[in-house]
Design a protein that fits this description.
Elements (H helix, E strand, L loop, with lengths): L2 H15 L8 H10 L6 E3 L11 H9 L3 E7 L5 E5 L6 E3 L5 E3 L4 E2 L3 E2 L5 E2 L5 E2 L5 H12 L15
Parallel strand pairs: 1-2, 1-7
Antiparallel strand pairs: 2-3, 3-6, 4-5, 8-9
């Protein structure tokens, strides 16, 4: 099936099935961090839309534990950058209707929670088709040789 048709079909199914937002367990994530010996404090999240998995409560818990939180800001040429953000900070609405930080403080998260439409049995991610996160991860990997993207699903073709 062509990806755009698959995206459309899954988004309709997800909307019907997910009237209540799906949450991520903070304790499970922290336990995963401990198991994998992840000690970083720089987390990149996203503001959920389209009945995506809701990571906001998870990010609140990270903030309470003094982690550095950041959210993406969509730039020109299909690029995104992450900017520092706290729940007490203002957000602005981008051209897609997604809240973004008003902050001008660039962040380089080490762990990034990546939104998706679906994934397959091999954990290949089906995103929205813009390739924003694929380009970001590639850029960050080049910028930080020790960069590890522990929690995002494997990159997919868009």
């Amino acid at each position: 099936m062509i990806k755009y048709k698959l995206r459309k079909k899954i988004l309709k199914i997800r909307e019907k099935a997910n009237k209540k937002n799906i949450q991520i367990s903070f304790n499970k994530v922290i336990n995963f961090f401990k198991k994998e010996k992840i000690t970083i404090k720089d987390i990149g999240g996203y503001y959920p839309v389209n009945f995506e998995v809701d990571d906001l409560e998870l990010l609140k818990n990270f903030e309470k534990k003094n982690f550095n939180i950041s959210l993406p800001v969509i730039k020109k040429n299909f690029q995104i950058d992450f900017y520092k953000w706290k729940f007490s900070d203002p957000l602005k609405i981008n051209r897609y209707g997604i809240p973004e930080p008003a902050s001008k403080v660039l962040a380089y998260p080490v762990v990034i929670f990546v939104p998706l439409i679906a994934f397959d049995r091999k954990l290949n991610r089906l995103g929205y088709g813009g390739g924003y996160y694929d380009r970001l991860i590639e850029r960050l990997e080049k910028k930080k040789k020790n960069y590890k993207n522990w929690l995002s699903f494997s990159r997919s073709e868009n």
